[in-house]
């Protein structure tokens, strides 16, 4: 395990590498959130369609 450094000792490149690694770790989470939003939009769309048809009867 690499030694811990204070933030003051981080070079801009090291900071950028840490940020890139953090974003890579978040990629699956972000993908899951996008999928969930798409699914919720589909559910809302289907619900509106059902309500419209029920109201037309």
From TrEMBL:
Q: Which domain of life is it from?
A: Bacteria
Name listed for the protein in its UniProt record = Uncharacterized protein
Q: What is the lineage of its organism?
A: Bacteria, Bacillati, Actinomycetota, Actinomycetes, Nakamurellales
């Amino acid at each position: 395990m690499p030694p811990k450094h204070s933030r003051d000792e981080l070079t801009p490149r090291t900071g950028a590498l840490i940020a890139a690694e953090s974003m890579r770790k978040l990629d699956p989470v972000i993908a899951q959130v996008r999928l969930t939003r798409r699914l919720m939009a589909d559910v809302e769309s289907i619900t509106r369609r059902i309500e419209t048809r029920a109201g037309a009867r």
